Amino acid sequence: MSTEPSADPQLSAALERLASYETVLVALDFDGCVAELVSEADAARPVPANAAAIEQLAQARGVTLAYVSGRPLETLRRLASPPEGTLLIGSHGAERYLGPDSPGLVLSAQEEIARTAIIEALEQVATTAEGAWVEHKPAGAALHVRRVEDPEVAQKVLEEARTALAMVDGAHVKEGKAVVESVVVLSTKGEALTDLRSHVRPGAVLFAGDDVTDEHGFAVLEGDDVGIKVGSGSTAAGHRIGAPADLADVLETLRRFRS
Ligand SMILES: O=P(O)(O)OC[C@H]1O[C@H](O[C@H]2O[C@H](CO)[C@@H](O)[C@H](O)[C@H]2O)[C@H](O)[C@@H](O)[C@@H]1O
Predict the structure, then answer these.
(1) At what angle do helices 48-59 and 247-258 cross, to 10 degrees?
(2) Residue 78's pLDDT is what?
(3) Atom 11 in ligand 1: residue holding the nearest Cα
(4) pTM score, whole prediction
(5) Least crowded by CB within 10 Å, which of 20, 41, 50, 206?
(6) For residue 29, how far is its CA from the centre of ligand 1 (angstroms)?
(7) Where is the domain boundary, 148, 183, 218?
(8) What NCBIfam families does the record point to (predicted)?
(9) Are 13 and 209 in contact (CB under 8 A)?
(10) How large is the angle between the packed helices 247-258 and 9-19, nearest 10 degrees?
(11) Which residue CA neighbors atom 20 of ligand 1 most closely?
């Protein structure tokens, strides 16, 4: 079944309404939304058609682009290669680039201690299964199991990680796809999206994402905002597309409605 907006009259109508506003904020999750999920996290890149559609949309009248991602800000910038002027939210909201004056993330002494404890705990768990590895991040760390061959072993490793993290003071757990993350700065994509809305003051917002952390973003949408869940799974989003490869058509449709 095609999930192109042209084949989904409700999504197409929602995009047309969105496009009628003077100003629009288009906020995109990265992994599993703009980029396909891959086993080498550092190899993730925008689907080429998505990259092209994003570049085009960045030129459109009254459109502000933003990435809202769990990735560290610097990694997001390197992997996504966003058009100039794109606003960037990284580390699930803990890191923000809203312009050259944006302050960088500074952890308190207590947060630094918690981050070190998170990394140590996850590195220890990662030694128990081949393929498990730890991504060190500015506000915490993520234990990845996508490269663990046996799904039962992978689940067991994730469970051990949750148990280990429960012992760390100041560690907040975030669930993801083949990953358990922990951050020392508690913030959600919903809060980040609300702050972006206050900063940009758009007429309406489009937000697309694929993961459980993106549900916080869908939850703060309102009015003629458009929420798009990428892939399967329960969601609060009003619309759904099948895969990252379907996103380009959504963005291109929105651009056409604005021209
Ligand atoms: O909010 P996002 O932009 O979706 O980032 C969420 C996490 O994405 C990355 O992990 C996920 O993508 C990897 C590459 O495709 C995949 O190997 C992994 O299994 C996924 O969980 C990233 O590594 C994390 O730091 C992000 O928080």
Answers:
(1) 20
(2) 98
(3) 31
(4) 0.96
(5) 20
(6) 10
(7) 183
(8) T6PP (TIGR00685)
(9) no
(10) 40
(11) 177
